[in-house]
Amino acid sequence: MRFFVLFLALALMLCLVQPGSSFAKDSITWMEADAPPFFIHRGELKGQGYEDLITDIIQQQLPQYDHDMVIANITRHYYNFKHGKKMCTVGFFKNPEREEFAYFSIPSIFTLPVVLVIKKENLKKLGGNRTVSLGELLSNENIRVGLAKDRSYGKDIDTVIEAHKKQKNILVLANQNLAQILFKMLLSDRVDVLLTLPEEAMYMAEQAEARDRIITLTISENQNGYDGWLSYVACSKNEWGKEVIENINQVLLEQRPTARYRGAYERWLDEGSLTGYRALYKEIFLSITK
Questions:
Q1: How far apart are CA 97 and CA 190, in angstroms?
Q2: Is domain 115-224 classified as CATH 3.40.190.10?
Q3: Contact predicate 187/208, CB 8 Å
Q4: How far is residue 220's CA from residue 204's CA, in Å, rounded to a whole number?
Q5: Which residues does residue 103 pair with via DSSP β-bridges, in sequence order?
Q6: Cα(290)–Cα(287) distance, rounded to whole angstroms?
Q7: Where along the chain do the CATH 3.40.190.10 domains lie?
Q8: What is the pLDDT of residues 55-104, one digit of tens each?
Q9: If pLDDT is split at 50, 70 and 90, which confidence band does 274 have?
Q10: 273 in Cβ contact with 112 (< 8 Å)
Q11: If you ran DSSP here, which 8-state letter would residue 219 be given?
């Protein structure tokens, strides 16, 4: 009788415990920078940044995971990846330094490349050309350049910056809301030049009601290929991250060709850019499958 009671008690415990352990999900914490229009955390466009929308698509296609979100600047991204936390991020540029602590998916976003942003009145000071060599500009100590700490601008641009990183005219900042802070510094003449993506520059200009005060310049070093157009999903470089990236790659292969996926970025382009962008999206972006 005593054995029977113990048996029933054990069976009851297994019934209570087993379902929970059987259906427990692994989790992913998604790091999002406070950087409109990539991620938008406030205002009427909250959640409508193109990396917001792409993150949503990926999450919806990975129901086997629980999904959480945390706002983190790029320096915090580095910290969490290096400590192997169960974290990922969308829209991360790939470079050798980052590959030491993160696994990368196939390309997840195809954007127009990084540009230089200046006030219109300073165009003559920079030579008057709409295409500029970043290397030559950084070598000119009379030109003050604002950069975000730990941010990658694509392999070709990162290489140029690394070669000039000791220049005294380069101002590197680390903070939340870096893009907005640097843009205000540009408008107040504390820096002469910023490096940003073109849609980022236009968003900040509109928010500051200063669109008619700035122009963007093409960077000649960005014309060597499409590396600076591609960004990726990154996850911590451990066994967990390797498995998550494999699952994400399957989602990207299925979702990237869809109008919904492509439209997440296209909504931030002007009509004149759409036709050329769509052609390159198909020719370059969708052709990269591993």
A1: 30
A2: yes
A3: yes
A4: 23
A5: 235
A6: 9
A7: 27-111+229-285, 115-224
A8: 999 999 999 999 999 999 999 999 999 999 999 999 999 999 999 999 99
A9: confident
A10: yes
A11: E
Q: How many CB atoms sit inside 10 A of residue 82's CB?
A: 13
Q: What contacts 212, CB < 8 A, 6 or more positions away?
A: 120
12 has a pLDDT exceeding 70:
no
pTM score, two decimals? 0.81
∠ CA 98-103-109, rounded to 5°: 85
- For residue range 170-208, list pLDDT tens digits in order: 999 887 677 788 899 999 999 999 999 888 888 888 888
Query: Is there a contact between 29 and 69 (Cβ–Cβ < 8 Å)?
Result: yes
For 22-87, the DSSP string reads HHPPEEEEEEE-S-TTTS--SSTTTT-SHHHHHHHHHHHT-TTEEEEEEE--HHHHHHHHHTT-SE
Pinpoint the alpha helices (H) of 67-224: 74-82, 96-99, 134-139, 155-163, 178-187, 198-207
Helix axes 259-266, 271-280, angle to 10 degrees: 130
Structure confidence at residue 22 (pLDDT): 46
Q: How far is CA 260 from CA 181, 203, 253, 271, in A?
A: 32, 21, 14, 17
Q: Dihedral angle at the C-alpha atoms of 277, 278, 284, 290, nearest 10 degrees?
A: 120
Residues in CB range of 24: below 8 A, 6 or more apart: none
The yes-or-no verdict on residue 2 having pLDDT over 60 is no
- Alpha carbon separation from 110 to 30, 130, 232, 265, 284 (Å, rounded): 20, 23, 9, 8, 9
The chain-wide mean pLDDT, for the chain, equals 89
Domain boundaries 27-111+229-285, corresponding CATH code? 3.40.190.10
